[in-house]
Specification:
Length: 100
């Protein structure tokens, strides 16, 4: 089950992930869609203000592109795209594919 918080924007009502310039919006949307498609069948995914997703009520997950993982709080699990190995709280996004 996915629960998202809707917000007003220039196009009407939308979700947080859609409030970026179009070029980055598509890439970010695809990354987040990949993550959701792998975890939704077995986990309860909700939206949170501090991160992109809250998995099973205890894990705060942020999904980002290459090199953007360092800007997030260390209390979050960061799923970063285009990396081979993780370090600390940063994990490669492709690892989400093994959870399905």
């Amino acid at each position: 089950m996915i629960v998202g918080k809707s917000q007003k924007n220039e196009f009407g009502i939308g979700f947080k992930i859609f409030q970026r310039p179009f070029k980055f919006q598509c890439r970010l949307f695809h990354r987040k869609a990949l993550f959701l498609s792998q975890l939704c069948p077995m986990s309860r995914i909700t939206y949170t203000e501090r991160a992109d997703f809250l998995v099973d009520g205890k894990y705060r997950i942020a999904v980002c592109g290459e090199g953007e993982g360092q800007k997030f709080d260390s209390s979050l699990v960061v799923m970063e795209d285009m990396i081979e190995r993780g370090k600390g709280n940063i994990m490669p996004l492709w690892l989400a594919g093994f959870t399905y």
